[in-house]
Amino acid sequence: MMPNNQYKADFNLNESCYFLSHSVGRPLKSSKASLEKSFFSHWEKSEPWDGWLEIVHDFRRALSRLFNVPMEEFCPQTNLSSAVVKLVMSLDVLKKPGAIVLLSEIDFPSMGFAIQHALPDTCKIKYIPKHLDITDPNVWNEYLKKDISLAFVTHAYSNTGQLAPLAKVVRLANDKNILTLIDVAQSAGIVDVDLSLLKPSFMVGSSVKWLCGGPGAAFLWVNSENLDECSPLDVGWFSHESPFEFNIHDFRFHQSSLRFWGGTPSVIPYALAAESISYMANIGSVTLREHNQALIDRIVIEVGDEFLSPRLLEKRSGTIVLGFGDRLEKIMQVLKKKNIMADVREQGIRVSPHIYNELADMEQLISAIVSV
Ligand SMILES: Cc1ncc(COP(=O)(O)O)c(C=O)c1O
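That is the input. Now the predicted structure with pyridoxal-5'-phosphate docked in place:
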């Protein structure tokens, strides 16, 4: 694929060197026309719901291809925070006195906020402290004790460029009958996740970052083996086993993960995301990752000790973090001037090369850094 990047022309990139896919992925050029066709054409013709619901099916089908599990196991959600609240509140095991949920201090804060507020007072949270190496399976082994009911596992950590040792963590948890909830916000579309092999209990993710599908098209995946453990509180007629039954005295949960759906769903975000997720699934997670890591390798060689995110491939997410001490501010000014888009977090500059980036983008970044 490199150096002739056949995918770049498919995206709207303007003139910038764009490394912010950890925040918002670039839109496909075909997105607008495709939305016109999939959403407006049904609305303009007549009663649109059959066509609109087909869009949501397409979204779930695309996820099913990307993550290699049945589409019935995916439920559309608005964002990860609300999906996590719905899930946590649905689990009877967390209502038992003394239940404990495991989180890490470097999980995305919104996940912590959502879980802290959704849990009953009798349920406690234990945090893996932020000074421990979250990429180390031994750390997880230490914390995955039998008293944990649910382990929240971020796959890719947004501020540090680290990957959790996901397969090992899920295996450890499954062996001890601990439920697992995986956050793939920063890995979906850039790190391979095969749920049929991994076998966690639950997963949440969204389409806005590496999947390039815009905001509002998040998802909750429920392993069919864990579905019976879920009794959502936040429901609506689309969560009903038979939504068109309309008997106010008889609510029964949908027989799939759609029990987490709720009331009348939004559609436009899923139309955009269905297209971009299919696009990424066609390329394949393995190719997406290889391309991303090849570009990262280019900078590892150049930047030396400033490279703060992990060097070992199995510990690296799609994002690199570069710390430049006193030079950081000046480097950010130069990047801005040269239209190289990256951002700064506590640990340093975040750079996320995606399928629409090429070697020339990395060279531009390197020469901007070296010039300071
Ligand atoms: C790891 C991780 N989880 C979750 C989120 C966002 O969650 P939400 O969809 O609720 O905004 C982000 C956003 O940057 C993230 O990086």
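The CA atoms of residues 57 and 357 lie 31 Å apart.
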